[in-house]
């Protein structure tokens, strides 16, 4: 309990720090945020798109095979 009180007093008497971050820091933060968002959506795209693409390709191939069987039956 006394440790938490002493930590509170140490931080309460500190003066605010003055620091210059510059315009490059803001651009870097914005770029990092956009990068994280893009990584999330591209990962989601990779997880969802390729299995769907494969399923559609297999469905198309099955339809093509069934149409060939129907043509062979007619002959």
Model description:
With 75 residues, the chain is an all-alpha fold. It has a domain at 23-74. Helices cover 84% and strands 0% of the residues. The protein has helices at residues 2-12, 23-74. The radius of gyration is 31 Å and the shape is elongated. The chain starts with a helix and ends with a helix. The mean pLDDT is 82.
List strands and helices in order, with pairings:
Elements: H1 2-12, H2 23-74
Can you summarize this structure?
This protein is mostly helical and 75 residues long. Helices cover 84% and strands 0% of the residues.
Class of secondary structure makeup: mainly alpha
- Mean pLDDT across all residues, rounded? 82
Rg on CA atoms, Å = 31 Å
Largest sheet: none
Instruction: Enumerate how many helices there are, as a single number.
Output: 2
Poorly predicted regions = none
**What is the terminal-to-terminal distance?**
93 Å
Q: Looking at the structure, what is the overall shape?
A: elongated
Share in helix: over 70%
Quote the beta fraction.
under 5%
Number of strands: 0
Oligomer: single chain
* String of helices and strands: HH
